[in-house]
Amino acid sequence: MKKSITLSALVVATALTLSACGNNDTAKPENTEQSQAPAKDHNAIQEGTAKLQGLTTQLQDAITKQDTELVKSLGKSINDAWLSYENAVRQTYPLEYTDVEKYEMPIFSASAYDKIDFNVLTDTASKLQDALTALLNAKESSGESSEILTKAVANYKLYVEEQTDNLTKQTALFADAVKSGDVERAKQEYAKARVFYEEIEPIAESFGELDPKIDARIGDVEDVSAWTGFHRIEKALWEDHSLEGMSQVADQLVIDTKALQEQAKSYELDPKLVVAGAMELLNEAATSKITGEEEIYSHLDLVDFAANVNGSKTVYLSIIPALNEKNPELGNQLDQSFQQLEGTLRTHQTNGQYIAYDKLSTEEIRVISDQLSELSNLMSQTASIL
Amino acid sequence: MSTEENQPAGSTISRRDFLKLTTSVGFGLAIGAAGMASINEKLIPEAKSEVNKQPVNDVIAMYGDRQAGIITPQQKYMYLVSFRITTSQKADVIQLFKSWTKFSDLSTSGGTMKTGDNPLLPPSDTGETLELSASNLTITYGFGPTFFLEDGKDRFGIAKKQPLYLKDIPRMPRENIDPSLSGGDVCLQVCADDQQVAFHAVRNFIRLSTGYATLNWLQEGFISGKAGVTPRNLFGFKDGTANKLHDNPEGNKKVIWAGQEEPSWMTGGSYMSYRKIRMLLEVWDRSSLSDQENTFGRHKESGAAFGKTNEFEAVDSSKLPVTSHVALAKQSGQLIHRRGYSYTDGVDPKTGNVNAGLLFIGYSRNPEEQLIPMLKLMQSKDKLNAYTSHIASGMFACPGGLTAGQYMGQSLME
Questions:
Q1: Contact (CB<8Å) A330/B33
Q2: A10–B26: do the CB atoms touch at under 8 Å?
Q3: Does residue A69 sit within a domain?
Q4: Do A383 and B121 touch (CB under 8 A)?
Q5: What is the pLDDT of residues B305-337, one digit of tens each?
Q6: How many other CB atoms sit within 10 Å of the CB of residue A254?
């Protein structure tokens, strides 16, 4: 009962934004017309998708021929083509939108790399084709609000399980490298493993003891001799330049991430938790990552930062259907804000790797921080869909 | 008189009553996604008239021919906040000014934004003024040179409307200006007799700016004195005695308010010049009384100029040390409207001395004529220089006042 009152108040107030300012700067879509896609939009989506399919086919050819230059330029064209009509897709076919977005992004990102990983890209391009086919044949979803949210949560749960699986696999590779004493390889694997953890950090944090065992920083522990987890090995790799005693820590880390994977399977998520988690991820990024406090030895803070943002974006993607229904303008703004921040982060990559935090100037950090604030402010409003 | 000064508003309401009225009709600021405002304008006047029966005499009207906070008697606390606009879209800037205006309207009347009845969303208002009255809150705003032209770029298509004398204060001898604490696109002077009320406004201005502007610097100041008595600075001397010389509509017109030659949006406006002046308190406190008085050219306790017995008696420059502060001010032959505040900034880690001083704020009709020559003269010769150092600087053009329904900067932006 209380919820319905709140929502109607929000709708009233949102509608008033238009009248209160005298002249309308931005026309907002009428809430009531969300369920029906205008024919114009439908045609635009069909045309855009057909064009994107063509470009993706060309990309697949270029990948087969291992033509780096062509792959790069097609990556950019695909992104341009997608951006030109993605808003219409997001509002009409949110579920299909999420899939296209998921596979389109890495193809665009790869266009900025010096070296292309053709194996990975072959797989991504084929998944993008599938997603486009699904989009072309999509029917408008007309689920009830509660169903939409339940589906969002189910999608997100799948993602969490996927990421904990990846975390376990990648941590095992990292542990192998540590135990074999291969410092360079260990450093590489470390960065990869961190991503999976940081993408689901709020979930991991809800598993109590496991989080400090896996992710504690030196300042977090009472007894430094009992310190375990990623950051203990980070110190060994980048600060101590010695892996002595680290085999045991690496073994324990593998055990702990497996325990996390097990717990994630039985984890009950509800929409509130998921939405709150997206906010927590951005707060994580705003407090420890943007300040360079998370990875004090390796300076990989941007890797963690991007992973936090990405984890938060996954939540955003899974709640798009609900946003479309309750607050489409918020969806538009979130989309723009994610694009802006992702664009900025991309400029701090060299060959697909984030540069070290200590290579960023104060001004560059400030730009990232301001854009993150904007995104966080928007994200803090997403609970209006619940 | 009513066109000359923003009168304390006859219609006043307590913050709590305002809140009650507004919550019941579902009115909130941070509804739009960026925390951007949507206040139902129609509801505000009604709400105000409803509660007129309960006057609380600490509301200064926001609307009028002039901005409040210029010739308004000085409140006890001030924040000076500088923003850099980050958006490149004029429409966004307008949107920001609109939501700032709505928040200003609300907070200067003693209201707060609805704190929110959805426990899952952040409250619209930060809440620290819920039981507090308006406390004579004023918000005065101005635009810096970079708002019009930045690196030769006409950012928002308003370069041709740049006022005649809006330029950064040129380099002065002996200054130690920190660029990170100077200038800015938009400056807000927020004053109140309750520091928490003033900071509440500042904090919410910052919140509302997210995605449109970023905070450059923020200064806080305080000043205290009985009503009608010239307040004292941290050197223990009266600061602003000369304001009395122009304290009438005719004098203000000559000294403070922008002239006919200015673009029309400056009608009723003024220039705000800002200098952050570090004062070496420990050194000063070890100086003899006669050294201190010779530095100013006035007697410390009475505030009277040398050779006089009363603070407001006309100064006879021949009786003053030639390089004293007051003698140089008189030599320049110019008046400005002073509205400074003292500040403290913690401890200098090297010396253990207190970082403290004066946030000099001066309003003038033409700073090129009134302020800059005076500043140059003082920076070269002033005895005070032994005890002070200018560490930050700014110049802002403050438009005239608003009528209800207009937004901040509207006459400039449209």
A1: yes
A2: yes
A3: yes
A4: yes
A5: 999 999 999 999 999 999 999 999 999 999 999
A6: 16
Q: pTM of the entire structure?
A: 0.80
DSSP H helices, B189-269, are 195-209, 249-255
State pLDDT tens for residues A334-377: 999 999 999 999 999 988 899 999 999 999 999 999 999 999 99
Size of interface A-B (CB pairs under 8 A): 80
Find chain B residues with C-beta within 8 A of A328's C-beta. none
B94 interface with A at CB cutoff 8 Å: yes
Residue of A nearest to B95 (CA): A25
**Is the complex ipTM more than 0.85?**
no
Range of the domain at A54: 39-142
User: Which CATH number do you get for residue A137?
Assistant: 1.20.120
CA dist B321 → A110, A214, B224, B318, B401 (Å): 74, 72, 29, 8, 41
| Long-range interactions of B283-286: CB distance < 8 A, separation 24+ | B283/B386, B283/B387, B284/B235, B284/B387
- The three-class DSSP label of residue A35 is coil
Q: Is-contact B90 B413, C-beta < 8 A?
A: yes
Residues in A touching B122 (Cβ below 8 Å): 380-381
Q: Are B38 and B29 in contact (CB under 8 A)?
A: yes
- Look up residue A99 and give its amino acid: D
Number of domains in chain A: 1
d(CA A256, CA A252): 6
Q: How distant is the alpha carbon of residue B104 from its chain centre?
A: 14
Q: Please name the member of B40, B86, B91 whose beta carbon is closest to the beta carbon of A25.
A: B91
For residue A316, the distance in angstroms to the closest alpha carbon of chain B comes to 14
Tell me which residue in A6, A276, A366 faces B118 most closely, judged by beta carbons.
A6
Helix (H, G, I), strand (E, B), or coil: what is residue B82? Answer: strand
